[in-house]
Design brief:
The complex is a heterodimer of chains A (271) and B (363).
Chain A: E1 3-13, E2 16-27, E3 31-35, H1 42-50, E4 56-61, E5 64-65, H2 71-77, E6 78-81, H3 93-103, E7 106-108, H4 111-121, H5 137-151, E8 156-157, E9 160-161, E10 163-167, H6 175-190, E11 194-198, H7 202-208, E12 211-216, E13 219-224, H8 226-229, H9 232-239, E14 243-248, E15 252-257, H10 258-262, H11 264-270
Parallel strand pairs in A: 3-11, 3-12, 6-10, 10-11
Antiparallel strand pairs in A: 1-2, 1-4, 4-5, 8-9, 12-13, 14-15
Chain B: E1 5-7, H1 21-43, H2 51-59, H3 69-104, H4 116-130, H5 136-142, H6 146-166, E2 167-168, E3 171-172, H7 174-198, H8 201-211, H9 220-247, H10 251-256, H11 261-283, H12 289-301, H13 305-329, H14 338-356
Antiparallel strand pairs in B: 2-3
Helix pairs in contact in B: 1-3, 1-13, 3-9, 3-11, 3-12, 3-13, 4-6, 4-7, 4-8, 4-11, 6-7, 6-11, 9-11, 12-13, 13-14
Classes of the chains: A alpha/beta (271), B mainly alpha (363).
Chain lengths: 271, 363
């Protein structure tokens, strides 16, 4: 079974429940996007799925209960990119990426060239010897992406597809690198791996998502193809904000705030 | 069973990067440094006994009557144990500092600053004062090792309290850690003061002698005790290095990379408490080795714990042996407590570190 699935996930922080019995399925070969307003439980769901926090309910990766994986087995099957990762000591970029390589199952004949290949994939060729704290926020995030990629370099293993799990991965990136990261994620899925990403940008979600899960107040509101999920009533309910999804035939959907359509400037541009 | 795939990569690495050679060179230089420091310390002292002559005597290169029995005694029975003890204590303190900094993810974490040494000191003082009465069962059970065991207990207790106070939901606050360390250190100091107040004359002499921070009481028995603790702890280090490296990216990231973070932290806390406790038990409180040594090495060879930990052991040992040589010679024939020497050199360094990197405190 080439899925990451969760059933009846309940997570509590103290007295209040953050997730109230969430069901979730992501298929390998697809980019699955989890979207929703602040505090809807997106990140918590991803943490429960990746095993970072304990939850009541069942999570399985490739048909096997998450709890039966040993730490190194899980590390060989899925990698997790956080919104931000701070590095405590002045490691070099290559050192940081090497940590991912050491954690995964890929035994490169030449680790240095695999690290350089990963740096090229994230547009940081030649950065290997730099100290991580001399890089900008966006560059650091791309180094972390390269580290995570090295951990699960080949999208398919003989124990099933590998999984790239990302929590708001594009938050610190400019638009060019947002697109580059999402392209990379899509390529990973097309090559047989699975991608699960928490996203705020509905347009990137619509562009790159094969499957979009919309959450609100710790529950899944709806899930499915982006054009099916991103409907005006659903969006207005989930985000409590009037939004206008536009269908472009054969291209998909993009979402604008309702107010943007009322502005004269846009009306002028449309003429 | 995880899949192991082999990725064939073209051999594009024509020239090995220069950086890769540096750690080995630093380790080699440090080994030479340890030998030189030991030689200096064996030679330096109030008496003019020659370490060289003794070495000639040992190797049989000089006739047996070419050496004064007095010189042989000074070198073999007084200076040699001090040098060996200094190497062990220095290595234990520096590695404790490096491991603690790795676990707390901060270059300011140190057993001395964070109150662990004070906690170990309280344990040791309690054993000296109460060993014949309240703590008699412990004395009976452990004999000579009761003092190090008590110091270990005090250090372990302090480290666990410190960690649970300063870490919440996997995030360690360095400000809380340092402030909690001050409070725990003051509390331990007050309790130790109370014990001093209660002590009789003989206990007071023991306490004073021990509390000064000195390698002066070096005996082969103390060396053996410390050697057992240091050897056992060092055996665990190779298994911790990768975990400590991964932990630099945070507990969650380390866990996602397959590191059993909780086990790593538990092992590290026990190791730090054991080495600090044993060092404090044999030589009193010697400060700043654990913070200065790893920091200097991170500047020289980078923060990779696979190199940093052994390098810290070597540099810590060498520096402490040199500090002991200074302590024995500057006021000869009197002797300064070595803790004064390390504090005089280490405290200004620590202040410089603070001024240079104020942001690491993020109070």
């Amino acid at each position: 079974m080439s899925t990451v699935s969760a059933t009846g996930i309940v997570v509590r922080y103290g007295a209040n429940a953050v997730l109230h019995g969430v069901d979730f399925v992501a298929n390998a070969g697809e980019v699955t996007i989890v979207a929703g307003p602040n505090g809807s439980g997106k990140s918590t769901l991803v943490k429960a799925i990746s095993g970072e926090i304990a939850s009541s309910g069942a999570v399985s990766v490739n048909g096997r209960d998450l709890r039966t994986y040993k730490g190194w087995q899980l590390a060989a099957q899925r990698a997790v990119l956080a919104q931000e990762t701070t590095v405590a000591f002045p490691f070099t970029v290559a050192d940081v990426i090497g940590l991912g390589l050491a954690a995964g199952a890929t035994r490169a004949a030449n680790p240095a060239s695999l690290i350089e290949a990963a740096l090229e994939r994230v547009g940081l060729a030649g950065f290997g010897a730099r100290r991580i704290h001399t890089l900008s926020g966006g560059e650091r995030q791309r180094v972390q992406l390269a580290r995570v990629l090295c951990q699960i370099w080949e999208p398919v293993s003989d124990t099933g597809p590998r999984w790239l799990i990302m929590d708001e991965p594009v938050a610190s990136l400019d638009i060019r690198h947002q697109i580059a990261l999402m392209d990379l994620a899509r390529d990973y899925a097309r090559a047989g791996g699975g991608v699960i990403a928490v996203m705020h940008d509905l347009n990137l979600s619509a562009m790159y998502g094969d499957h979009v899960v919309l959450m609100k107040s710790g529950r899944v509101v709806t899930a499915g193809r982006p054009e099916a999920v991103l409907q005006p009533e659903t969006l207005a309910h989930v985000f409590a904000c009037p939004l206008h999804p536009n269908m472009i035939p054969e291209r998909g959907v993009f979402v604008l705030p309702q107010s943007a359509l009322a502005r004269p400037a846009l009306a002028f541009a449309a003429e | 069973m995880a899949a192991t795939t082999v990725v064939e990569e073209p051999a594009m690495q024509a020239a090995k990067p220069l950086r890769a050679a540096v750690p080995q060179m630093v380790i080699a230089a440090l080994i030479v440094g340890v030998v030189v420091a030991a030689g200096i310390s064996l030679t330096a002292g109030a008496s003019n006994a020659s370490a060289f002559a003794v070495a000639m005597h040992w190797t049989g290169l000089a006739p047996a009557d070419a050496i004064l029995p007095r010189d042989l005694l000074i070198i073999e029975a007084i200076r040699l144990p001090r040098v060996v003890l200094g190497l062990l204590v220095g290595a234990a303190l520096a590695v404790s500092g490096a491991v603690m900094q790795g676990i707390f993810r901060n270059p300011l974490a140190d057993p001395g600053l964070a109150g662990v040494s004070a906690g170990a000191g309280l344990g040791a003082a309690a054993m000296i004062v109460l060993g014949g009465s309240l703590a008699l069962p412990l004395t009976g059970a452990f004999g000579y090792a009761a003092l190090p065991v008590a110091a270990f207990g005090g250090g372990l207790f302090t480290t666990i309290v410190l960690y649970s106070l300063s870490t919440r939901l996997g995030r360690t606050s360095i400000a809380t850690m340092l402030l909690a360390g001050i409070a725990l250190g003051a509390l331990s100091g007050a309790a130790t003061g109370l014990l001093v107040y209660m002590a009789d004359d003989k206990q007071l002499r023991d306490l004073t002698f021990w509390g000064m921070g000195s390698l002066g009481g070096a005996t082969w028995q103390k060396i053996a005790t410390l050697a057992v603790v240091v050897t056992a702890s060092f055996c665990a280090l190779p298994f911790m290095s990768r975990g400590l490296n991964a932990l630099a990216l945070g507990e969650a990231a380390a866990w996602h990379m397959g590191i059993s973070v909780e086990r790593l932290k538990r092992t590290a806390i026990v190791i730090v408490a054991a080495m600090t406790g044993a060092s404090v038990a044999v030589s009193g409180g010697i400060g700043f080795v654990g913070i200065v040594v790893p920091h200097v090495l991170r500047l020289a060879i980078g923060p990779d714990h696979r190199v940093l930990l052994p390098a810290s052991a070597l540099l810590g040992g060498a520096l402490l042996v040199l500090a002991d040589a200074v302590a024995r010679t500057v006021a000869a024939p009197a002797e300064l407590p070595i803790g004064i020497v390390t504090a005089l050199a280490g405290a200004p360094f620590f202040l410089w570190l603070l001024l240079r990197r104020r942001s690491i405190l993020d109070l």
